[in-house]
Amino acid sequence: MIDRRGVLAGGLAGLVLPQGATAAMPGVPASGRLAFDVQRGGKSLGSHRLSFRRSGDALTVEVLVELLYKLGPVTLFHYNLHVTERWAGGEVQGFDSQANDNGTKYRTSARREGGALIVEGNAVARYAAPANALPATHWNRHELDGPWINPQDGKLLRPQVVARGPDSVPTLGGSARARRYSLSGPFKLDLWYDADDQWAGLAFTRGGGEVRYLRR
């Protein structure tokens, strides 16, 4: 069973890409910041934040997920994920991640060698991912076009994607128009992207309750 928490990756602040690079890498906000409140049944679980830093044609994306679920004073689970992605010329060059899933710790890394990403970690044997595989951090809509690398444990995922068309997605301040995509296979979830191809929302069901990302 794929842990949905490990498929969710995102982070904190950022910068816009140079002219000409945005077509290859949609989704980078001009503000350099993309952040979500994570809620289950209307109650806050934590945050999922992304940051983007540019130097020439290189882009670094920082992802930080912090989740905590409590029942009164008792902590039922906690989850933390930190991912650093490195891009150059519109192509992912690699990433490093650390995660703590309720006490189980993961370390994963990927490096581009030739036409493939070489992935390894403490939960996956070293392997060569397909050239078009992307880390499943969701800010880049092109991840829907090929296989995913789970940024938590490094496993290769091949979700089936169905475009649902225009939709209204809840945000922290109300709602926004966006395109909805439904994913199935190793997991089931919905993703939304706005007219600028920026990540606008995410939702899935867990333990009988809906978990939803509300963009700030």
Overall description:
This protein has 216 residues and is mainly β. The protein has one domain (4-157). It is 2% helix and 61% strand. It contains one helix and 16 strands. The strands form two sheets. A 13-stranded antiparallel beta sheet has the order 8-7-6-5-4-3-2-1-16-15-14-13-12. Strands 9-10-11 form a three-stranded mixed beta sheet, with no helix packed on it. The relative contact order is 0.18. Mean pLDDT is 89; it is low at 8-24.
Quick structural summary:
With 216 residues, this protein is mostly beta strands.
Major beta-sheet overview: 13 strands, antiparallel
Provide the structure class: mainly beta
Oligomer: single chain
What strand line-up does the widest sheet have? 8-7-6-5-4-3-2-1-16-15-14-13-12
The total domain count is 1
Which residues sit in consecutive blocks of at least 5 with pLDDT less than 50? 8-24
Shape call? globular
Q: What structural keywords apply?
A:
216 residues; mainly beta; 13-stranded antiparallel beta sheet; three-stranded mixed beta sheet
Q: What is this structure's SSE topology?
A:
Blueprint: H1 4-7, E1 33-40, E2 43-55, E3 58-71, E4 74-88, E5 91-101, E6 104-113, E7 116-121, E8 124-129, E9 134-135, E10 148-149, E11 156-157, E12 160-171, E13 174-184, E14 189-193, E15 199-206, E16 209-215
Parallel strand pairs: 9-10
Antiparallel strand pairs: 1-2, 1-16, 2-3, 3-4, 4-5, 5-6, 6-7, 7-8, 10-11, 12-13, 13-14, 14-15, 15-16
